[in-house]
Amino acid sequence: MVTARYAPDVFWRSETRRRSDVLPDDVTENGRSRLAFDSVQKSDAGRYTCVARNELGETKETVEVIVNEASGSPETDLTIVGPSRLTYTIGQSIELTCLSKDLPNAQITWRRPNRQPLPPGSRVSNGVLYIPRITPEYAGEYICSLANDFQTVFITVTVTSNLVISPSSTRVRAGASLRLSCQLGSSYPYTVEWSKEDGVLSPQARESNGVLDIRQVTSADAGRYKCVATTDIGSSEAYADVIVVGENDGRCL
């Protein structure tokens, strides 16, 4: 028999919930504590410990709650409209469409893995993710799911530039002139910067509107040239290989 002097304080602990989480209703009656779940959720699964404590000490018992999903849950045909891998150019606006044939009015959401943010200005409407302009840092996987995460599908977006360097490979005779052109097919204003990977640009080099001109080429001008085009939404690069041929080496250009 429990006397008032040694009446225990009875309460429940959870080994899986964070301290900030609220346990279900803990109903205590006549020295007994009952943990009540009004509507069981998957997050309720875990180990729960009943603790009884008074001046003489403490005793506890642990139970494990296992939550099984209801059988016969309807499967939905959640699909991506179009290919599962798409390639776009920098700055292009894109639309990714996800539909459920079985649930035409289903609430569909879009997200990126690991809580990465969607691109700036993105919006979702009727299963369509609209991105006003795509940039390289937002390339990768996009996840379409029903609002309750019952089913998810994935699509991979690759972002490339339409930067064109011409010619990409050329042979030029020593003493002749060299011209390389670097153009970005974009509606955004951009700047172009030239460099030489294995050395410095010739003192004779001149740059204008993406075009690199070198007069009186020498053997020191041979090598790989790098063009970097930069806009307010990112940068792209392209390369050109230049071979300088001497006048008396017997080879034809």
UniProtKB/TrEMBL annotation:
UniProt xrefs under CDD domains: Ig
Task: Kindly provide the name given to this protein in its UniProt entry.
Answer: Ig-like domain-containing protein
Superkingdom of the source species: Eukaryota
Q: Which residues form the Ig-like domain?
A: 1-68, 74-160, 161-243
Originating gene: 106075157
UniProt keyword terms in alphabetical order: Immunoglobulin domain
Task: Identify the PROSITE patterns for this entry.
Answer: IG_LIKE
> Do you know which Pfam families this protein is assigned to?
I-set, Ig_3
Provide the organism lineage as a comma list.
Answer: Eukaryota, Metazoa, Spiralia, Lophotrochozoa, Mollusca
Species whose genome carries this gene = Biomphalaria glabrata
Q: State the Gene Ontology BP annotations.
A: axon guidance; dendrite self-avoidance; homophilic cell adhesion via plasma membrane adhesion molecules
Q: Which GO terms describe its cellular component?
A: axon; plasma membrane
